[in-house]
Fold:
Amino acid sequence: MEETFTALRDKPCKEPAKASAEKTVQTVKGRNCQVCSPKITEGMRDFVDLFTRKIEETVSQFEFELNF
Structure:
């Protein structure tokens, strides 16, 4: 999660969260745990859906003035 939060500081949108979740899924599946491997994809998908929704809600509250 620390890596995800660092990436979100640089790019506050859903892409870093989704990339981090995919990395987590691959790491867990790579461990070949008979309990975790079958559940990780669905669990992370649900978590990322909620997490990215909250990211987008939070970011949408900011107003920026760009003066060029």
